[in-house]
Design brief:
four-stranded mixed β-sheet; alpha/beta; homodimer; globular
Chain lengths: 305, 305
């Protein structure tokens, strides 16, 4: 099966206690696609400026990611920079230059329209909805959002996620969206908004998957060294939806195996953990599927009782 | 098998977003013993003042807890009061009156000396060591400590835990003891200090068990309502060591099943979660073993993939 991902492709400036990078490939769409590419044929829809480097294009293409939907326009690529606290649980944004991303109007190449899996990265909800409407045979669709859309574009966001199979957000976003601190109650409020599946990411503390009749919880993978957490949540998303695409998972046929969703959460956690091991997207230059499956097996060993 | 627990028996004043209690039964030893009593014959060593109520004695005795080692002396029982933040992840201590606990010299009744399981609750390390030395046939011993002993009584603490099978502390205490932020590295440093098993509690985020050759991780049980977290960590300890005592777990015979330790962590998590459902020790007035085993089964269901 194949997957379409929309979102940001960017350059990041990152400082963590382990070091600093002035300018390195980043953006949610980049991380999601790199992560998903280990599982399934992945195509992206994004925009970059004239400064987008050939070597960065080559990294994505080298993973088999289709770049037919990567538009290059006059101007500069989205730039973000931030600095992490000593324990890396907090980060401060230093700069956000939207550049060409400010006018992003996703254009879906004709070759993408009939693909079955769709992940709508964090962009304006109405744009997410436009893309979904251009896809003709989607069988599993969902995405991410952020505090800004939840607070300032609430109605637009609700009208968008109403038509999603899954929503994948972090715990503070879930609390904000549901207007409820308790995560269990917040989750049930969100399931009333449309998505039948809700995945809540909790960073180093793991993740949870909620459906009306089930709950799945996984602790975070405990790394010896967290080098740079940038992109970990997006890599989680890529592993989650990438695995389901690989498996041809079909929520709508009524006979799906809920454990496939659980395994997708584990693969998400695995991909998020690898992402943290090096700066930016560096880990994906060497990461292999064998390493991924080995860590999946470790999760089984480390959680068995 | 049977278990001896030493530590504090106290009265607590508690305020959470759900309400307030001026004075209710508390103390680490109380919570540990109540929790362990669902699994094994439990005996306590503690001290209370003249104000200790007959009904509180009756609650413990009603669970089959042996009170032969509960000394009653002139003066007042240890009193602690605190108030929780809105999200209940932080609490502020309002008052700590050690009272009779200030001069606590644990006296082990002769009937306790040959019991095989020993949990040394958070008291001065040298007193923990004295008690351990009075026990003649211990086959599994360990306990808890706190930031005060870690910072101000470090050498005494190290000399004490050197002879323990397990140490059960929270994540900030583990980081402080190891002088290392990364929990995986911190755990290995602590395993070098003596205990062959380290359990790290992470509150609502679950717990982890480390041994030299293995790691076990469990997410926190997701409650619909957290009423009062007081004592949850101690109830975890009671479930952990209580279950191992029930099973006659014997680390020293070399043929033990490491999954028993994992299941003990799950029972610890189960007991901690029940503790939060009502104020103070209230939940233990009605809790049954059937409910406990049902929640254990839920943990299995919620973490299977």
């Amino acid at each position: 099966m194949s997957l379409v991902v929309i979102g940001s492709v960017a350059y990041d400036g990152i400082e963590t206690p382990h070091g600093k990078r002035e300018r390195t490939l980043g953006g949610a769409c980049t991380y999601i696609a790199l992560s998903a590419s280990y599982f399934t044929q992945t195509s992206i829809v994004a925009v970059v400026g004239e400064d987008f480097a050939e070597e960065d294009r080559a990294l994505l293409a080298g993973k088999g990611v289709s770049l037919d939907g990567l538009e290059q326009v006059p101007g500069k690529t989205f730039f973000w920079s931030g600095v992490y606290s000593d324990d890396m649980n907090d980060r401060t944004t230093l700069r956000t230059d939207l550049n060409v991303f400010a006018d992003f109007q996703p254009k879906l190449p004709r070759s993408y329209a009939a693909q079955p899996y769709l992940f709508l990265g964090n962009i304006q909800p109405s744009l997410q909805r436009d893309v979904q409407q251009q896809m003709t045979r989607v069988r599993f669709v969902g995405g991410d959002t952020m505090n800004y859309w939840i607070s300032d574009y609430r109605e637009e966001l609700l009208a968008t996620i109403k038509h999603w199979d899954f929503l994948l957000i972090n715990d503070s976003e879930a609390r904000m969206l549901a207007k409820e601190h308790n995560l269990r109650r917040a989750a049930h409020k969100i399931l009333d908004m449309g998505p039948n599946t809700l995945v809540i990411k909790r960073g180093e503390y793991g993740a949870m998957l909620f459906r009306r009749d089930t709950l799945f919880m996984v602790p975070g993978y405990l790394l010896e060294d967290v080098f740079d957490p940038t992109g970990a949540g997006d890599c989680f998303a890529g592993g989650f939806v990438g695995y389901l695409s690989e498996r041809g998972f079909d929520l709508r046929n009524g006979h799906f195996d809920v454990h496939e969703l659980h395994r997708a959460v584990i693969y998400g956690s695995v991909m998020g953990s690898f992402c943290c091991e090096q700066f930016g997207v560096e880990r994906f230059r060497t990461l292999t599927r064998t390493e991924i499956d080995k860590r999946f097996a470790e999760f089984r060993k480390f959680t068995a009782f």
